[in-house]
Write a structure and sequence with these properties.
The complex is a heterodimer of chains A (about 120) and B (about 775). Chain A is an all-alpha fold. Chain A has helices at about 1-20, 25-45, 70-100. Chain A is elongated. Chain B has about 775 residues and is an all-alpha fold. Among the domains of chain B are: about 270-525, no CATH class; about 710-769, no CATH class. Chain B contains 35 helices and two strands. A two-stranded antiparallel ribbon of chain B has the order 1-2. In chain B, about 45% of the residues are buried. The chains are: A mainly alpha (about 120), B mainly alpha (about 775). Chain B: GO terms for molecular function: antiporter activity. Chain B: Keywords: Antiport, Cell membrane, Ion transport, Membrane, Transmembrane, Transmembrane helix, Transport.
């Protein structure tokens, strides 16, 4: 499964990068979302996969023992998911506003902001 | 000797004080500025007699000892000569300028830079540490830049200043390279200590490189061919600046550097040969150019270059006699050339022109000035009994008794000197003789300082010429005994009838003949313009333009403002660099065992992931792309659930849902979902993206072969409950161990929320709708 997920991560990166290289702003953002998922998966994989053992200390225990999923990557990913939501929501609204003003979502034609009075 | 350090750095302090006075106050008391050079001159004069008797004054204190850079100053016979020249000519120029620039609105700025320059120059010639020498060297270039561009409203001035700065700046870099290199291989940055390992300069694998750097530094600073062209341009500066920086002192810094390092290179014959050739070319070329100039300062600029050429040439001959001749000529030249410049300045100031074709007959109004001009011209031409005559004697003595081909060397020296006679006479004599042209108008009598100062210099030329014994000991106890162990030649005006007197007479007579037969005119000046296409200046400008164009092209290529270009460059480079590594050295082990161990639910999730990604990328509808993106997010949840991360699954699920909802909400306002790029671009981007993805997948697989370090995780596993009393370890990390991070994260989210709110709710201005 690790190897398949590794390949999957590669695919997510490829898809994300391909969309980021588009001229359309909407595709750019979708690309960032997919790339974000790829990054999360990458971090998750690097911690090592452990099936069905969440890092929860049993009710009668004082510490994690035995086999458990690595909590550090999970904490990192949790932060990443939330932050990327901040980024995405701001970007989505920004596109909307930019389109309202500039009537385009083509990045190449968006360099004329100086002309707007 | 702490006072010594204070004296050397006093100019910088003084400049600060001047600046503090303010323009208004300073304008009424410009003479104050002259106090510094005069008192410095007196101070340094007190060192003359002990130094002549062989003493050397040093000051040493650590500055950056870890790099070997120290405040290490050394006042020896060569340095004292230069300091006297700098402060002496400085005093005269400072006094002269009080009248020359009287009431000028930027006079404070002028004096501030001039004072800084003087300090830098004194520092340069007294530094015994090559790095501080470099610092002062650069300071002279920089202050020179501000002084050349003093009339900064004129485009020509600014351009000349930039050319001068870039040429001398280039030399400065070479000097730094020389300093570092010499410091590395000799193990010291002290110039006098380097002398102990002088074999390095003569016979080391990098000694050729050392020579290239020191030549580049000296030749750019001292305006040697082909770097000479910045000096005529620098004449755009006010005349006192030309007098001081671009004739008497700064341009001689290169000569100083060569003289200072002559003992180091004394056994290196290439060093002297190059100097001989470059000096020879420069002096002939520049002297020839004086024939074709009509601007007095233009003539002076080229005759200065010629004189600098003579100095380099003399050092290049490399005998005791020639080095003495070079050092004597430095003083001779400073005296007469500074005088001629000041004469020109006064003429310009009173008559309003420096055009030689329009000047004449000024002796009636400017009688004292004309006397100064005559004496300086005679000294320049080597007429007895001026000191110029002695200087010329020594030059011929050096060419006749040194080098491999005395006849050839003497011939070019005579040729150059004939033209120097001409140049001196044109500037110092011609404006005063003949009839005053009518178009010149009424010429007012100058303020006494404007003729007294040149007169002072002229008097010195005459005085030292008649009584050379006054200054002889300054030259006979110079660096030359170190060089060959011979005695320096004796300075005297009369050695009896010999070949040298004959050559001197030939020079003077031929010079007079050229002066009377050759009249400078515009026609002759413009006849030289057609050679401009090949001039070093032209080539340098072409080079500068091309350099600018290439930089522009490179900048636009890498920094063209398109996001995708940046992303592409980074990705392609990453893929190439790391991809090659993986390709050469694969450490990937695929085992089929893992594939067999797959559950059906894992297979389904992976398949869903794959389909949703491909769907998102290739769909033509925006809504389906967003839906695909959402599905991808949900499949991520499954992965998290399978592998023990329920918190992640929950977060991912809610965030993914929110994103999709937000997207759909603004969807109807968005433009059409278009394919904007063409097929080629899409294929190119596809290849880049796919290769990076492949590279990444391989990297991950390779990394997974390694055993991860688990120390951090084990710390949290052990202490999550013990220290933080929480049983969900992930949550404990977030809100407790890394609580501050989480707080900042909340702040970030709040800012994003405010941004979103603002963008949604703020009213558009009318024209934006």
């Amino acid at each position: 499964m690790e190897i398949l997920l590794a390949i999957m991560t590669g695919i997510l990166y490829a898809a994300g990068i391909y969309l980021i290289l588009r001229r359309s702003l909407v595709k750019l953002i979708i690309g960032i979302v997919i790339l974000g998922n790829g990054v999360n998966l990458l971090i998750f994989l690097m911690g090592g996969l452990v099936k069905g053992n969440p890092p929860l200390i049993p009710a009668d225990g004082k510490m994690l023992e035995g086999v458990f999923a690595d909590p550090v990557p999970q904490a990192l990913i949790l932060t990443a998911i939330v932050i990327s939501f901040g980024l995405q929501s701001f970007a989505i609204v920004l596109i909307k506003r930019a389109y309202k003003v500039l009537k385009t979502d083509d990045i190449d034609t968006m360099n004329k902001t100086d002309d707007i009075k | 000797m702490t006072i010594f350090l204070f004296v050397i750095l006093s100019s910088f302090l003084f400049a600060l004080i001047l600046f503090g006075l303010g323009q208004q106050k300073f304008q009424r008391m410009t003479w104050v500025a002259s106090l510094l050079p005069i008192s410095l001159f007196l101070y340094f004069s007190s060192f003359v007699s002990p130094i002549i008797n062989g003493e050397v004054f040093t000051f040493f204190t650590k500055w950056v000892p870890s790099l070997g850079i120290n405040l290490d100053f050394r006042l020896d016979n060569l340095a004292i000569l230069f300091t006297l020249l700098i402060t002496g000519v400085g005093s005269i120029v400072f006094l002269y300028t009080t009248q020359y620039l009287k009431g000028h609105p930027k006079i404070l700025r002028f004096y501030t830079f001039l004072t800084i320059f003087m300090g830098a120059m004194i520092g340069l010639v007294t530094s015994n540490n090559i790095i501080t020498l470099f610092i002062f060297w650069e300071l002279t270039s920089i202050s020179s830049f501000y002084l050349i561009s003093f009339n900064n409203t004129q485009a020509e001035s600014r351009k000349s200043a930039i050319i001068a700065l870039s040429i001398t700046g280039l030399g400065g870099l070479a000097l730094l390279a020389f300093a570092v290199l010499a410091g590395q291989i000799t193990g010291t940055l002290s110039i006098s200590e380097m002398l102990q390992s002088s074999e390095v300069f003569e016979n080391h694998e990098v000694s050729a490189l050392l020579m290239v750097f020191i030549f580049l530094a000296a030749f750019t600073k001292s305006a040697q061919f082909p770097f000479h062209f910045w000096l005529p341009g620098a004449m755009k500066a006010p005349t006192p600046v030309s007098t001081y920086l671009h004739s008497a002192t700064m341009v001689k810094a290169g000569i100083y550097l060569l003289l200072r390092f002559t003992p180091h290179f004394q056994n290196n014959s290439y060093f002297f040969t190059v100097l001989l050739i470059v000096g020879g070319i420069t002096m002939l070329y520049a002297a020839f150019q004086t024939l074709f100039k009509t601007d007095l300062k233009g003539i002076l600029a080229y005759s200065t270059i010629g004189a600098l050429g003579i100095m380099v040439f003399l050092i290049g001959i490399g005998t005791t006699a020639s080095i003495t001749a070079a050092i004597v000529f430095i003083v001779v030249h400073a005296l007469y050339k500074a005088c001629l410049f000041l004469v020109t300045g006064t003429i310009d100031h009173q008559a309003g022109t420096r055009d030689i074709t329009k000047l004449g007959g000024l002796r009636k109004v400017l009688l004292p000035l004309s006397i100064a001009g005559f004496i300086a011209a005679f000294s320049s031409g080597g007429f007895p009994p001026t000191i110029g005559f002695i200087g010329k004697d020594l030059i011929y003595e050096a060419t006749l008794h040194g080098g491999m081909n005395p006849v050839f060397l003497t011939t070019i020296a005579v040729l150059t000197n004939i033209l120097m006679v001409f140049a001196g006479l044109v500037v110092g004599v011609k404006p005063f003789t003949g009839k005053q042209p009518e178009e010149l108008g009424r010429v007012k009598k100058p303020h006494f300082l404007l003729w007294l100062m040149p007169m002072l210099l002229a008097t010195l030329s005459l005085l030292f010429g008649i009584f050379p014994g006054m200054i002889e000991s300054l030259f006979t106890h110079n660096i030359t005994p170190d060089l060959t162990g011979e005695e320096s030649p004796h300075l005297a005006i009369w050695h009896g009838f010999n070949l040298i007197i004959l050559l001197s007479s030939i020079t003077i007579i031929a010079g007079l003949a050229v002066y009377f037969l050759w009249k400078p005119s515009y026609k002759k000046e413009s006849s030289m313009i057609k050679f401009n296409a090949f001039s070093p200046k032209r080539l340098a400008l072409v080079f500068a333009n091309q350099f600018e164009r290439i930089s522009y092209f490179l900048t636009r290529f890498f920094q063209n403002g398109y996001l995708r270009r940046y992303v592409m460059i980074i990705l392609v480079l990453l893929t190439l660099v790391f991809g090659i590594h993986i390709f050469i050295n694969p450490r990937i082990f695929l085992s089929l065992k893992e594939i067999k161990a797959l559950n059906w639910n894992e297979i389904v999730v992976l398949a869903m992931m794959l389909v949703s990604v491909l769907f998102t990328v290739f769909t033509k509808s925006r809504l389906s792309a967003i839906a695909g993106m959402g599905v991808l997010g949900y499949t991520m949840c499954f992965i998290f659930v399978f592998y023990g991360a329920p918190d992640l699954a929950m977060t991912q699920f809610s965030i993914d849902t929110l994103t999709v909802i937000l997207f759909v909400l603004v969807l109807y306002r968005l433009p059409k979902y278009l394919k904007l790029s063409n097929r080629t671009n899409r294929i190119r981007d596809g290849i880049i993206a796919t290769s990076f993805g492949t590279f990444l997948a391989f990297t991950i697989i390779e990394i997974m072969n390694e055993n991860p370090v688990k120390a951090t995780s084990e710390f949290y596993a052990e202490y999550a409950y013990k220290l933080a009393k929480g049983k969900n370890v992930v949550n404990v990390i977030l809100v407790d161990f890394r609580g501050f991070d989480t707080m900042i994260e909340i702040v970030v989210l709040s800012i994003a929320a405010i941004g979103v709110f603002a963008l949604l709710k703020l009213y558009l201005k009318k024209h934006e709708k």
